[in-house]
Amino acid sequence: MNAVFPGSFDPITSGHMDVLTRASRIFDHVTVTVMHNARKQGKHLFTLDERLAILHEATAHLPNVGVDTFGGLLVDYMAQQQQGLILRGLRAVSDYEYELQIAHLNRQIGEVETVFIMAATRWSFVSSTMVREIASYGGDISEMVPRASAAALRRKFADVYAARDAGRAAGTE
User: Fold this and answer.
1) How far is CA 124 from the centre of its chain?
2) Residues 117, 90: contact at Cβ < 8 Å?
3) What pLDDT is stored for residue 15 in this prediction?
4) Which GO terms describe its biological process (predicted)?
5) Taking the CB of residue 70, how many other CB atoms lie within 10 A of it?
6) Active site includes 40?
7) Catalytic: which of 51, 128, 132, 149?
8) DSSP H or E segment with residue 7
9) The domain 2-121 is classified under which CATH number: 3.40.50.150, 3.40.50.620, 3.30.70.1660, 3.40.190.10?
10) Is 123 annotated as a binding residue?
11) Which residues share a beta bridge with 31?
């Protein structure tokens, strides 16, 4: 059976990778699908092409994982690709309440089932939003994201990291 792991992945985190890696052991094939929404255009840190490149690099070691993109309703993507299940990761009860609503809607309008995998406890506090915030101040996000995301974040915030590194070298931090 195949699964689709949809999201914005801005950027992919270690929590996402935990869920994805475990799912790759359960499903025959998992497609990480970057969903792009015209209403959110310009609100992402990374462009769609950058997110796809990060995902390709971060998932290269998982032979049964592919990367794709789609704009529109997820149930339409599922029908077009003839995919089986939607895969969603959960961190906390608050995620569950939101994801349950979406799962019911997807089943109602597209007859598509959703499977939930709990992220490991150590990643329950990590979100793309928090990672972007920490990186914007030059914080250490190396444990919270795969190498591809960490490198991309360092490039995005190169001036902040350069100033932090210079301050450390000068002993002022």
Assistant:
1) 14
2) yes
3) 96
4) coenzyme A biosynthetic process
5) 18
6) yes
7) 128
8) strand 2-7
9) 3.40.50.620
10) yes
11) 4, 66
Q: Helix crossing, 158-170 with 147-156: angle to 10°?
A: 90
16 catalytic, yes or no?
yes
- Which pLDDT band, with edges at 50, 70 and 90, does 95 fall under? confident
Structure tokens given for 92: 């906390």
Q: Is 20 annotated as a binding residue?
A: no
pLDDT of residue 162: 86
Looking at residue 92, its pLDDT comes to 84
Amino acid at residue number 167: G
Q: Does 125 carry a binding-site annotation?
A: yes
Are the C-beta atoms of 125 and 99 separated by less than 8 Å?
no
H/E element, 117: strand 113-118
Domain locations in the chain as residue ranges: 2-121
Pull the structure tokens for residue 82: 């003839």
